[in-house]
Amino acid sequence: MIINAAECEPYITSDHRICLEYPRQVIKGIMLTCHYLNIPEAVIAIEDNKRDVVSVLKAEIDQAAATPDYPEKGISIKVLPTQYPTGAEKILIRLVNDRVVPEGGLPADVGVLVQNVGTIRYIAEYFETGMPLVNKIVTIDGSAVSQPANLEVPIGAAIGEVVEKSGGCKLEAGKVIMGGPMMGVAIDDLSRPILKHNNAIIVLDEKDATLPKEIACIQCGRCTRACPMLLMPTVLDMAARNQDCDKLNKYHVMNCIECGCCTYVCPSKRYLLQNIRIGKTIVRQASKG
Ligand code: SF4
Ligand code: SF4
User: Fold this and answer.
1) Per-residue pLDDT tens for 230-249?
2) Which CATH number is 2-129 given?
3) Domain residues of the chain, as ranges?
4) Ligand 1: which residues within 6 Å by Cβ?
5) Strands (DSSP E) along the chain, which ranges?
């Protein structure tokens, strides 16, 4: 099992704070999961810009190692380079276990379970208190936010109220994103609720929120070099625009992890990820017949 504490999107710090403030519950949650799912070994993956977490978690692991429920092959910590998108599930499995999840497949297909550190901590809390998952720790940040913070908030709370609780906005909001700025989804209504998978609310000011106008591709190849899944984003982009399902399949669109690296590096500001997402929908619909 891999415990994903490699929070790699800009702004988001909720997993880092969970490791620092709830290390006992993180290790207990790992031991409970290993025990009930009969998993012999767990690896906590963190990035090397969060080394303060290592000593805190190591101290808890040392204490846990003397208890009867400690996993057969132990709990270890793997420090990975700080490079987006290290925390993406398929990238993490490649870096930690040197295994490749097949196209359209799941971590279970290569014998790995990936759990977020927040989920693992809540498993311990459930066993200790009997409370189901009713709260979530979320990062509130972004260029429009007055006071960046990590707050534990009830699932279902209105996003606007959560932002207000953190200190509100210092600038007019141009865009509110549920999740990180690379992989998150923009929302159009602040009364929308915090969901159980939310780890961040990012509020960008008008300047940061304005998308540049795309221009023609200059065939520079930067998007291909940036793709961690070794795809050809510009080919997938055109195939999606042309609704060419065969080509989307041929160039493995379903292997895209939607990291946004291609869009980020493109000098022509092509809407690559946006179109590749549409391409994935085209393939999914076609496979349903
Ligand atoms: S979003 Fe772009 S860079 Fe990321 S995996 Fe998909 S095609 Fe590759
Ligand atoms: S990075 Fe942009 S301009 Fe360069 S090849 Fe890719 S889509 Fe074209």
Assistant:
1) 999 999 999 999 999 999 99
2) 3.40.50.11540
3) 2-129, 135-209, 222-287
4) 226-227, 229, 231, 233, 256-262, 272-273, 276
5) 2-4, 42-47, 75-80, 114-116, 135-141, 149-154, 173-178, 185-187, 200-205
